[in-house]
Amino acid sequence: VSRVIPVETFDLVIFGGTGDLARRKILPGLFRRFRSGQMPVGSRIIGAARSEMDTAAYRSMIAEAVAEFGGDEKNDTKSLDAFVAALDYVAIDAKGDGGWVELAGLVRSDVVQAFYFSVAPSLFGDLAERLHTHKIANAQSRIVVEKPFGRDLETARALNKTLAAHFDESQIYRIDHYLGKETVQNLMAVRFGNMLFEPLWNNHYVDHIQITVAETVGVGGRGGYYDKSGAMRDMVQNHLMQLLCLIAMEPPNQYGPDEVRDEKLKVIRALQPVAPHHIVRGQYDAGPDGPSYREDAENPRSFTESFIAMKCEIANWRWAGVPFYLRTGKRMKARSSEITVYFKDLGHTIFEGDVARHRNILSIRLQPNEGMDLQVTIKEPGPGGMRLIDVPLDMTFADALGPDAEEVPDAYERLIMDVIRGNQTLFMRGDEVEAAWGWTDPLINGWEARNDVPKHYEAGSAGPEDALAMLHRDGRKWRELK
Ligand code: BG6
Fold first, then answer.
1. pLDDT, tens digit (0-9, with 9 covering 90-100), for 294-353
2. Which domain holds residue 457?
3. Rounded to the nearest 5°, which phi and psi values hold at 28?
4. Measured in angstroms, how far is the CA atom of residue 127 from the centroid of ligand 1?
5. Least packed by Cβ within 10 Å: which of 90, 117, 239, 394?
6. 328 and 443 part of one domain
């Protein structure tokens, strides 16, 4: 029995419908939803972009994109043909009148309407305005916007204002695709669906928490964007902060959009300013299998960080005194995104001769190998007497669910279906994004004012020495990247 939750018939317009994100993620994702039966018959997807092309050409472009970026499902050519038949294309001029009348003719007013702004933020205002002047959007329409949502507090505020001039907050879906990842939602299920963890989830029992998002890819190919952003703006301000919020927030009274987002906002507001010696910025040097950051970014004098490690504090009753160590970087030793909760050491051991330090460690793996494990201490089996060993209680989802499990939707497909369903829980609210920039701005301004030079790390390593030293000083260690 399929557990796919049906959605209503929709018209989804993708501005930037020929772009990278549309071809790599949005459309291959929609194809998977189509195949799983979640896209109702009669729903339409309308690609809109600058290039002149007809619908037939667009359909073949998307069929090729699915073949290139999709998984095994791309071999199902029958479904793929049926899917692309639901696509239309309009050549549109965001800053002029070209294409709008045609678009107005395609978008129906009696189905769910969603407009995905997969374009540069400088066009948001033009698109929002024209959707209204051409009477395409209405009070129920939804708009979806991508990161980067501004590059600081001021630009984020300006974007929020631009959108608010045309749409109500309840119509705006700001994507942070990390919130669409299966494990991220599972984090909430584990915290608030079990008796076991929540009583221990505080400074009495938790020693510290680590959040790592390590990537092996470099910035080659997107240096133009990345070199102006760096890891702080590209990853910390959004993805890592969202993870931090979910792990640290108070229990919302119910799993509803504003309930969850109110609690996340409180975490951001309780974040303390981070002292410069608690931040390590890094930039990768050439390694055995690739060029340096500066070559990748095509900027020989760049001081942009491709790595960041920081020690954060949340000033509230639950977390006072518990460090949250965040780290993210490109071209690191392994691709690994993981949240790890280190519980405190036992205060006393009753077992003679047991000198090892036993602690429970809960690790939540976002990717690869999604799942969780909890390190627990048991007696070493066998005749050796009362010897203790630490073993993982492994909850790898793929193993736990077995081969018959329903296909797990990827982040984008899940989030797009949430837009159609009108569920904003996994989207960032305007005040949340502003608060996040409000916390990162002074840190970025600080290192810009100091002309901070990032530390070097070899591509394929675990990051700069200083990042290791930062934890070492606290008597702790980063979780090994494997
Ligand atoms: C994007 C960043 O938001 O997230 C990229 O701009 C990064 O730099 C990517 O590579 C990581 O996403 P994922 O889902 O591959 O972990």
1. 999 999 999 999 999 999 999 999 999 999 999 999 999 999 999 999 999 988 888 877
2. 179-409+429-473
3. -60, -35
4. 26
5. 394
6. yes
